[in-house]
Amino acid sequence: MDYKVSVQRVAESEGANLKAFASVIFEGSFKVTGIKVYQGKNGPFVAMPNYNTHEVDRDNRPVYEDLCHPVTRGFREDLNGNILQCYQDNQEDHQVYERTCSYGEEGLSVTANITPYTKEGRDIQGRGRIVLNNCFAVKNVVVHGSEKGNWVSMPSVRNRSDFQDVCYPITKDFRMEMNSKVLGALEDAIGKDMDAPARAAEERPVAHNPKRQEHKRGR
Predict the structure, then answer these.
(1) Fewer CB within 10 Å, N- or C-terminus of the chain?
(2) The CATH number of domain 110-202, selected from 3.30.365.10, 3.10.180.10, 3.30.1120.40, 3.60.15.10
């Protein structure tokens, strides 16, 4: 899989840990934005785009979860390493620096895992995640229902007064392939839910109560 990393440094500001913004395009077909490079105690590190879960931890601090992230250690090291190398090579503020990389098998494949959404009063039919090449996951993928049929939305974050997609297809062909996999995964999940009662009935053990025989007592 070929992918291109783009990194843009931000202007140095005293006390600011944010050092750069980054994006990744997989096989020229799927883009991930909102990646950030921060300066930590042990050096710069990469943070994937995340969202506030509106929950708090034991110390009453807000809990954030990644919207997308590598799912294998090998790809995490490869992706983060290339982003940081691109950041180190780029010494000009506000200038975009790019780096072309490759990892694993050629091409771009997508799998989907979607769970039906059963709450009433919403147009949401299902939600779940997709995985690219079995190494990069995108969460908060939602299937909406409408009069014209189901359609797929990608994870987004609020940008001032509007919402902006964080991860999304950038070619028509891959959008069609991804949507087909997502909608197909939802149909499969709904089918399994409908078959579940029948399967449960088939698997339920049948009580064996042999008819009690009555023995006549001799006179």
Answers:
(1) C
(2) 3.30.1120.40
The domain locations on the chain are: 2-102, 110-202
- For the question of whether the overall pTM of this predicted structure is more than 0.70, the answer is yes
Q: What is the DSSP string of 61-97?
A: PEEEEESEEESSHHHHHHHHHHHHHHHHH--SBT-EE
| SS3 (DSSP) at 186 | helix
Equal fold, 2-102 vs 110-202: yes
Tokens of 132: 């690219």
Q: For the segment 85-140, what is each residue's pLDDT rounded down to a tens digit?
A: 999 987 776 788 899 999 999 999 999 999 998 776 678 999 999 999 999 999 99
What Rg, from alpha-carbon coordinates, does the chain have? 25
What whole-number distance in Å separates Cα of residue 68 and Cα of residue 24?
12
SS (H, E, C) 138-168: EEEEEEECCCCCCEEECCEEEECCEEEECEE
CATH 3.40.1440.10 fits 2-102, yes or no: no
